[in-house]
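Suppose a classmate hands you a notebook page containing two proteins, each written out with its sequence and a corresponding row of structure tokens. How would you begin to make sense of it? This section walks through that situation. The first entry is reproduced here exactly as it would appear on such a page.
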Amino acid sequence: MADPFRRTAAFTASVLLVGVPASLGQGSGAQASDSPRPAAPSTSYRPAQSEFSLTVSPTRLAIGPADLAKVAEILVVNRGDKAVTVNVLKRNFTGGSDGALIFQQQAPYSASAWVTVTPSTFTVAPGAAQTVSATVKIPAAPEPGDHQVALVFLVPAGKTTANVRINRGIGAPVYITVPGPTDNTAELSDLHAPAFMMWGHTEVTAKVHNAGTVHRDFRNASPLTVKSAGHTSAFPDFTVMRGATRDISAVWNPPLLCICHPTVSLVNANGAIDTVTVRVIVFPLHLLGIGIIAGLAIWLGARWWRRRYRAAVATAATQLKPIVGGGSA
């Protein structure tokens, strides 16, 4: 009889490298510039000297109303030293607080049934590439705004005698903006920073919630920033998809001494400005301590020198007395 533990342990673990923060572009997802057309396939690509090295370009697609009838393309490049067979899967998803894609079969605003990919299965030789085409057909009377699906480029695990087999892949989100009235409103909250610090840089964290109907990008020429006392620090590039909330953080470098109020602001398409701020006291206690110690050392040194000087003067005066008052009769 087979060992039940061994039978249970023989499973396939699918690891999908889909922690791709929805980024690229700026403004609403209706901008076609978010999805640059991939470069024309080259006859060969320099290998990465690795058994597995698969890349896709662009890393996401943002298909606006003007591009719904166009064919989008993604270039898949195999820089590994072995041929790989790739299966292109469609997965509905929601956005995690860290920007990762969380696959959910019943995710809201799903568009997996709208997209057709060609080819859906292919083999790429080492140093070669394959162009995958994606076409969109929206249903009748869909809700305006963003609908999304992830294209997962999955390389199944090869044959092995091991109990655990790992599938490797890359997830590329596709944002499809349905024509109609849209709203890009985003809201800031929970700005946090240390209430007191002595020196150096510190981490500032906040939450950004997308209360609109299209994704919001904060990157390139218009990143989200934290400002205070003439110092500005940018948050790393990120995207907040429709209905999602992102946790963000930035490194802020305050001045040496201040009562600062780091502030984060964003402007929505309707002109409304959302702002959050927090108070941080920066006081270099270590420098104050060094100053006190140095001052004390100087005072003690001066005191010691004055006592030595007075003692030397008294000794000299004592030695001069016989000379001044002495002599023969």
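The notebook's second entry, a different protein, reads as follows.
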Amino acid sequence: MRISEVASRSGVSARMLRYYDRLGVVRPSGRTTSGYREYAEQDVWRLLRVEGLRSLGLSLQEVQRVIDASPDAHELMPSALLGELVARTREQMRQHRELLDRLEQLAASGPGDWSEALDTVQLLKQLGSARPEARYRAALDAASGSAPPAAPIAEALLGEDETNAAGALRWALARADAGSDADGPAGAVAALDPVLAHPDPAVRERAVRALASLDPDRSEALLLRALEDPVRSVRGLAALALGRHCGAAGIRAIPVLITLVVDGSRDVEAAEALGAIAASTAAIEALEAPEALEAPGIAERIVHAFAARVDAFGSVPGERARIAQALAELPLAVTAPLLDRLAADADRSTARIAAYVRGLAE
């Protein structure tokens, strides 16, 4: 079979066939008396294998190595090389996904002109740096600029493990969100909304921490959703954020905050949040019933919940001691009866803390 016929039937150009011949990848088995290349059936099979392997991303040198190692046209590629191909393909897919993410973030950030678009691309590149100090500097630069895009900052924050860089990104995110449309696609809340359903609890925790840094009016609805998260640490972070915001949302967080105190998980912060909720006039006004001021107030409800935990079967001294300490954040007028009980507790540490708290308020 002459070279022109092979080129016509295989779709490989005559120029490429000559190149293959020169490299020794596919050489014709013979030549005519006039010197023209003459391809035999096994040459065509080899050509088909070469083109098939090249379509998988192999270089010509790798193709030649595979074919020389397994001359049988029906033999599979060596497993080691196949593994290399799988790894290479996955890396290409990762790069393509990263490119797609950047394009989507660029579209969501809504740059007003090409200058803003280039600034956004540069920010995306810096936030994706492998060096924590570079990411930290990028976050600070974004925060100090005018109206930085929230979506790429939120994306970077969700994957940030370094403490300083994460703190800078949260600050930058709060500034970016403040300068964006609250309900627009470029806002931080819009970027964090789907993350609350992420399968990794660590990512959901980062999302809640990010929400806690935003304006409460924007983040409250998502924090309330996070309050129902199946993972206790995520619920706890949401409750602490809602407690600091106070108002009706803070009231919703009270059961989780009480659990944080009793379990000893960020109990000091939880106690402070409970005290802030109890002291908030917004919390009382949020009861919405006409008889609200005559009904038990928020502080009384918190104390009743703590008393129920003290009376619960199986309560341990450590739990009662933390409850006694948490009562320091509430008015003595409502905590005195429970503090008196705890001051007589059989556990000396609990009794000492309760007596001390009782004395502080007098």
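A careful reader of the second entry would note: The longest helix spans residues 79-109.
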